[in-house]
Amino acid sequence: MAIDREVYLDNAATTYCNGEVFYAMQPYFITNYGNPNSLHQIGYTAREAIENARASVAKIINADPDEIYFTSGATEANNWVLKGIVAASPIKRVLVSAIEHPSITETARWLTENGVEVDYIKVDENGIISIPDLLAKLSKPTCLVSVMTANHEVGTVQYINTIANICSKNNVYFHTDATQALESVHINVKEMQITALSLSGHKIYGPKGVGVLYLKRGTPIETFIHGGYQENGMRAGTYNLPAIVGLGKAVEICMRDGNTNNTRMKQLRDYLIKEIEAKIPGVKLNGHRTQRLNNNVNFSFQGISGESITAMLDTMGICASTGTASTSEMLSRSYVLQAIGVNDDYINGAVRFTLGRATTKEDLDYTVACLVNVVKKLRALSPINIKTEVSENV
Length: 394
What we know:
Elements: E1 7-8, H1 19-25, H2 27-30, H3 41-61, E2 68-71, H4 74-88, E3 93-97, H5 102-113, E4 117-121, H6 131-137, E5 144-146, H7 160-169, E6 173-177, E7 196-200, E8 211-215, H8 241-279, E9 283-285, E10 296-301, H9 306-315, E11 318-319, H10 335-339, H11 344-347, E12 350-354, H12 361-381
Parallel strand pairs: 1-11, 3-4, 3-5, 5-6, 6-7
Antiparallel strand pairs: 2-8, 7-8, 9-10, 10-12
Helix pairs in contact: 1-8, 3-8, 4-5, 8-12, 9-12
């Protein structure tokens, strides 16, 4: 069956590569292809491109260029910062939030298996970090706290200023995974007293396979990848030159167009929330209603599975998700939704719609119309008798 249209609402999983980014990268595949470490003119040209990209990334978060390290993505950056800071510290204890991305939670699990004490900070029903729980857990010696700037599933944005300030006062390093947040949240690492921060190119309309670890100058950390002397000897491996150039360009576009994109995205986000709540009974908005990413809408639909909803929407040309791309193939319950206390009637019915720069109001109207029909069909097939009213939305 031919699909009349395509509506991509899975931008939290990945974004398309912006045309300006693509064109900026092209010469570094064919013309300016030198190894940035080579001591000749083509190498110097490549090196200059790397340093220009480094300066752009530093500027958007108010870091110094020598505090920016290029990686293969945020997953590598998250692994590096947790393992590297713990390895360099005499204190083998780490705190992470209960709703971190798997690249943090799985790294934390690995640390536990290797003798490091890992404790998990509680969150409330909206996904906001419990400050009393953080303070209580910091009563024991701790080397590092890691809390993501904004959650990948439910979109809740944390009060990073407060958390980082608490860590600073307790002489504890603070890391934040800002992968989802760079376009929605203003980040100033110096003012916010952030020790380390992770980013990924493909979440901001840049290429896949490239990311960043910001590390405050002077922070003790062990080298993660050994070999050559790239990145001041801290991260070996030949530079992914085109991708780094693309990341730099993507960051420049964020700085140039961010305010306009954010205003428009927030309006569309709120419109989609209003339309779903008005037209579909038995739904629950997951995450904080207002303290959330400008493009994130996560709803649970009572009594039916999110996997069934997304599968049916896919046949209509609508791309959505039940959670992260890392875990969408696993039919187990979302640990994020469990942590925020979503009840049994709703926890299996979560669908995440994440808007992008190309999303239009017409796309959302089409999505809501399809979603109304999909939910009706699935509930009619459900063995569970669901008694819902439009006014029942929670």
